[in-house]
C-alpha cells in the first residue's frame, strides 16, 4: 500500500510539473521576446506585469468551438493532439532532478534510450494531424515534419551515445553521478549538436519550417482550433522543458554545482534548465528561419559528421584515461 | 533454469503471463488490421499499435533495452519514414478500392510459412525450459542493458557484424538506385526518343522504386 501511495505521489508531482513549467516558459517567452524587441508584452491580465496572460489564453482556447473539417479523417484528427502531448509527459517521469532516489519520477534502466525513443513518438502526432486535416498546407507541414525528424534524430542519438560512452552507463541518474567538471569541455561539441538537433525536433525557430506561417499557414496545425490547438502549443512548450532538462542532465552535470550540491542539487538542475530555456527563446528572436534544403544540409553535412567526431574523441579519451 | 512442469503449470498463470497474452492478442489483432484495412494511412497507424505492442511484450519479458530500441527504431523512425513515403506519393483520406494486391494468396502463403518456421524454431529450441526472468545471470535483471550488451558483443559478435554488412549493402544499393534514377532523369532532355519520366510516374515494369529519394532515405534508415 505504501509503495502504491509512493508511486501515486511521484506521478502526481510529475504531472503538476508537467502542467506548470511549460506555462512558466510560455510566459517567460512573452516577456523576453517583448523586451528583446523593445516592446512591453502582456501587461494587463492579472495586474502585475500580465502574469495571468496564459491563464486568460487558456480560458479563451477552452471557449472556442472545436471544429473538425468536413473532409477530415475524424478520429485521427481528434486523436493527434494527445499523441503529440503524452510522450513528453512520459519523458518527464524519467528525468532526475536531484541526487537522491526520491528526486526522479521513476528510475529507468536504459534511461537515454527511453527518453529519445518516446520523444520520437511525439512527432507521430504532427504527422497524424497533417494527414488527417485534408488540407494541402497541413500535408506539406506533415511532410516537412517527417523529413526534419529523420534528419535530426540521428545526430541526437549519436551525441547521446557519446555521453553514455563517457559515463559507462545508459541510465540518466548514473550519467549525472559519473559527471566531472572536465566533461564540459570534453563533450561541448556533442552538447551543442544535441541541443541544436533537439530544437529541430521540437520545430522551434530557426528550425520551424514545418509550421512556417508565411509559407504554409501553420503547417500540420492549420485546421485546429480551441483546446486541441492549445494542446499542440502545450506540447511545444513541454518539449522545451524536456529538451532543456535532458541537455542539463546529459551534458551540464544536472545537480552538480560549484557549491551546495548536498540537498540543494535540484536548484542547480532547475537553474541550468531555465538558462537553456532562455537560450531557446533567445534563438527564436535572433535567427531567421532556415530554408528546407538548408535545414537538411545542416544536419547531414554538419551535425552528423560533428557528432561522429565527438564519438571518436570520446572513445580516444576514454581509452587514454583508463 | 528448471523444467516448467515441475514448478510452473500452464493452468496457474501469473499476472505477467496474463498481461503478456492479452497484449499479444492486441498486437496480433492490430497486425491483421494493418494488412486488411483499405485505408492506407490507417494501415501505417495500426502498424504503430502492433509494433508498440511488441515493445510492451519485450518489457514484460524484462528486456527493457530491446523494448526501447524497438520503439526508437520502428515506431519512431520506420513508421515515420513509411508515413513520409505515403504522404509524398499518395495518401487519400478514406478507402482505396484498389489497395488490394493480386498476390494476396501468395503473400498469405509466405507469411504463414514464415510464421510457422519461426514458431517451430522457438518451440523446438526451448521446449519446456523455464527461464527465471527476475534473478538471471549476474544478479542483474536478465534483460538489462548490461546483460544484453555483454551477450551481444561476446557471444553474438559475428552475426551482429554480418548484419551490419547487410545494412551497408542496402545503403550502397540505395545510392546506386538513386544515382541511376537521377542520370535517367537528365538524359532524355537532349534526346527525343522517350518522354522524360518524372519521379513516381515511371512505368512500374521498368523500375520498382517509385523515387530515388525514398530509396536513399530508407538506406539511411538502414544504417541505424
From TrEMBL, chain A:
Keyword Transmembrane helix: yes
Ranges annotated as spanning the membrane: 7-26, 79-98, 110-133, 154-175, 181-200, 229-253, 265-286, 298-321
The keyword Transmembrane is assigned to this record: yes
InterPro entries per record: NADH_UbQ_OxRdtase_su1/FPO (IPR001694)
GO cellular component, one term: plasma membrane
Membrane topology: Multi-pass membrane protein
Compartments reported by the entry: Cell membrane; Membrane
The organism's place on the tree of life at top rank: Bacteria
EC supergroup of this enzyme: translocase
Sample GO molecular function, one term: NADH dehydrogenase activity
Subunit structure: NDH-1 is composed of 14 different subunits. Subunits NuoA, H, J, K, L, M, N constitute the membrane sector of the complex.
Protein role: NDH-1 shuttles electrons from NADH, via FMN and iron-sulfur (Fe-S) centers, to quinones in the respiratory chain. The immediate electron acceptor for the enzyme in this species is believed to be ubiquinone. Couples the redox reaction to proton translocation (for every two electrons transferred, four hydrogen ions are translocated across the cytoplasmic membrane), and thus conserves the redox energy in a proton gradient. This subunit may bind ubiquinone.
PANTHER family: NADH DEHYDROGENASE SUBUNIT 1 (PTHR11432), NADH-UBIQUINONE OXIDOREDUCTASE CHAIN 1 (PTHR11432:SF3)
Protein's UniProt name: NADH-quinone oxidoreductase subunit H
TrEMBL record, chain B:
Region (Disordered): 181-224
Molecular function, one GO term: quinone binding
Keywords: Cell membrane, Membrane, NAD, Quinone, Transmembrane, Transmembrane helix
Membrane-traversing stretches: 18-36, 43-61, 67-93, 105-123, 156-177
Cited InterPro entries: NADH_UbQ/plastoQ_OxRdtase_su6, Nuo/plastoQ_OxRdtase_6_NuoJ
A cellular-component GO term for this protein: plasma membrane
Pfam family, one: Oxidored_q3
EC identifiers of the protein: 7.1.1.-
Enzyme class: translocase
Main location: membrane
Compartments where found: Cell membrane
Reactions accelerated catalytically: a quinone + NADH + 5 H(+)(in) = a quinol + NAD(+) + 4 H(+)(out)
Entry function: NDH-1 shuttles electrons from NADH, via FMN and iron-sulfur (Fe-S) centers, to quinones in the respiratory chain. Couples the redox reaction to proton translocation (for every two electrons transferred, four hydrogen ions are translocated across the cytoplasmic membrane), and thus conserves the redox energy in a proton gradient.
Name this protein carries in UniProt: NADH-quinone oxidoreductase subunit J
Species name: Streptomyces himalayensis subsp. himalayensis
Amino acid at each position: 500500500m505504501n509503495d502504491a501511495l509512493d508511486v501515486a505521489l511521484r506521478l502526481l508531482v510529475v504531472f503538476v510539473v508537467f502542467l506548470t513549467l511549460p506555462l512558466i516558459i510560455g510566459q517567460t517567452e512573452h516577456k523576453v521576446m517583448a523586451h528583446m524587441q523593445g516592446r512591453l508584452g502582456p501587461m494587463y491580465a492579472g495586474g502585475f506585469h500580465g502574469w495571468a496572460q496564459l491563464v486568460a489564453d487558456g480560458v479563451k482556447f477552452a471557449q472556442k468551438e472545436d471544429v473538425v473539417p468536413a473532409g477530415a479523417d475524424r478520429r485521427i484528427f481528434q486523436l493527434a493532439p494527445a499523441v503529440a502531448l503524452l510522450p513528453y509527459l512520459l519523458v518527464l517521469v524519467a528525468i532526475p532532478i536531484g541526487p537522491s532516489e526520491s528526486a526522479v519520477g521513476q528510475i529507468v534502466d536504459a534511461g537515454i534510450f527511453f527518453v529519445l525513443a518516446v520523444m520520437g513518438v511525439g512527432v507521430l502526432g504532427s504527422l497524424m494531424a497533417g494527414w488527417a486535416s485534408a488540407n494541402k498546407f497541413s500535408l506539406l507541414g506533415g511532410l516537412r515534419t517527417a523529413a526534419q525528424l529523420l534528419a535530426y534524430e540521428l545526430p541526437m542519438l549519436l551525441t547521446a551515445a557519446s555521453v553514455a560512452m563517457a559515463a559507462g552507463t545508459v541510465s540518466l541518474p548514473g550519467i549525472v553521478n559519473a559527471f566531472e567538471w572536465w566533461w564540459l569541455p570534453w563533450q561541448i561539441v556533442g552538447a551543442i549538436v544535441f541541443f541544436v538537433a533537439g530544437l529541430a525536433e521540437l520545430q522551434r525557430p530557426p528550425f520551424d519550417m514545418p509550421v512556417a506561417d508565411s509559407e504554409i499557414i501553420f503547417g500540420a496545425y492549420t485546421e485546429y482550433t480551441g483546446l486541441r490547438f492549445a494542446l499542440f502549443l502545450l506540447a511545444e512548450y513541454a518539449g522545451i522543458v524536456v529538451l532543456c532538462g535532458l541537455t542539463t542532465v546529459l551534458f551540464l552535470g544536472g545537480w552538480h554545482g560549484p557549491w551546495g550540491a548536498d540537498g540543494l542539487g535540484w536548484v542547480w538542475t532547475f537553474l541550468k534548465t531555465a538558462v537553456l530555456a532562455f537560450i531557446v527563446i533567445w534563438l527564436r528572436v535572433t535567427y531567421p528561419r532556415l530554408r528546407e534544403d538548408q535545414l537538411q544540409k545542416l544536419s547531414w553535412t554538419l551535425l552528423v559528421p560533428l557528432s561522429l567526431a565527438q564519438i571518436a574523441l570520446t572513445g580516444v579519451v576514454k581509452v587514454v584515461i583508463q | 533454469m528448471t523444467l516448467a512442469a515441475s514448478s510452473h503449470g500452464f493452468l496457474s498463470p501469473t499476472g505477467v503471463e496474463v498481461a503478456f497474452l492479452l497484449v499479444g492478442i492486441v498486437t496480433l489483432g492490430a497486425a491483421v488490421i494493418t494488412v486488411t484495412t483499405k485505408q492506407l494511412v490507417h494501415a501505417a497507424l495500426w502498424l504503430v499499435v502492433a509494433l508498440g505492442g511488441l515493445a510492451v511484450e519485450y518489457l514484460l519479458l524484462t528486456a527493457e533495452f530491446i523494448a526501447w530500441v524497438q520503439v526508437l527504431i520502428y515506431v519512431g523512425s520506420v513508421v515515420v519514414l513509411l508515413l513520409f513515403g505515403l504522404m509524398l506519393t499518395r495518401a487519400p483520406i478514406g478507402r482505396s478500392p484498389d489497395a488490394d494486391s493480386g498476390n494476396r494468396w501468395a503473400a498469405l502463403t509466405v507469411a504463414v510459412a514464415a510464421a510457422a518456421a519461426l514458431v517451430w524454431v522457438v518451440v523446438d529450441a526451448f521446449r519446456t525450459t523455464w527461464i527465471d526472468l527476475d534473478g538471471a545471470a549476474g544478479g542483474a535483471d536478465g534483460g538489462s542493458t548490461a546483460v544484453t550488451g555483454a551477450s551481444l558483443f561476446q557471444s553474438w559478435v559475428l552475426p551482429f557484424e554480418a548484419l551490419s554488412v547487410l545494412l551497408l549493402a542496402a545503403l550502397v544499393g540505395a545510392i546506386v538506385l538513386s544515382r541511376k534514377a537521377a542520370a535517367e532523369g537528365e538524359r532524355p532532355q537532349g534526346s527525343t526518343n522517350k518522354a522524360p519520366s518524372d519521379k513516381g510516374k515511371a512505368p512500374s515494369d521498368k523500375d520498382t522504386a517509385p523515387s530515388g529519394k525514398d530509396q536513399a532515405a530508407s538506406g539511411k534508415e538502414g544504417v541505424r
